[in-house]
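Session log. Operator J.P. requested a structure for one protein chain; no other inputs attached. Running the standard single-chain path with token output.
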Amino acid sequence: MRVDAHHHVWDLSVRDQDWITGPGLRPLRRNFTVDDLRPEAAAVGIGRTVLVQTVTVAEETPEFLGLARHSDLIAGVVGWTDLTRPDVADELARLRELPGGRYLKGIRHQVQGEPEPEWLVRPDVRRGLAAVAAAGLVYDLVVLPHQLPGCVRAAMDHPELTFVLDHLGKPSVAAGSLDPWAGHVRALAALPNTVGKLSGLVTEADLAKWTVDDLRPYAETALAAFGPGRLMFGSDWPVCTLAASYAQVVAATEELTDVLDEGERADVFGGTALRVYRL
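Structure written below.
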């Protein structure tokens, strides 16, 4: 079974996505549903997915758990809760007890929007991360390259918690620059409680004329650093549609992993996600 370890859905009639602003993101200003994704995933052999939070709104995670409960596609949810709240452990327990609560596999916060480069090592955030670990969940990192040293510190401070690096830390693919991003990724991957997500690269590249060769140095860096057993495929649908169709993203990832043997590629396209998220 192949797993897409990272996608989103939203319904603008339920809640605005306030990050979808400006002409460049206009194609995303419509509803994207599980029913929209299902035929796209089936066409390329994706049988299970992980649904990931999009906004820092408490109501979204229970809604996603409800979607997973009634879906034959969604196998796990990475939700959101305020890590800095004093009762975060109680809130995580409440989420696990909701209908569909067993599908909660991880927590994520939009760290990329925080002005503090080392937000993850604030004392109140560290307390929240400890609660995530105690709940048996993983923590997804959505960060920018300059925030990666803070991720390294957080992962060192919480060896009991698995950290998943979404979109490989959003390297500057369009600019073609590898450093200092590559060094930071290698430092993070040197810690055994970290995992990389081979996702989101097409939207960090030139949206109109990216090629697989543009993405290859970043994928090769991640493969060398994490290894296929700690790397997982994610489409980042529907955000990826700014640059590529779902099928094109899968095809590009297949090409980027063509140096792997069958078992290693099976890890990237499913095995790693199944283990890390306990799907």
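Operator note: The longest helix spans residues 212-226.
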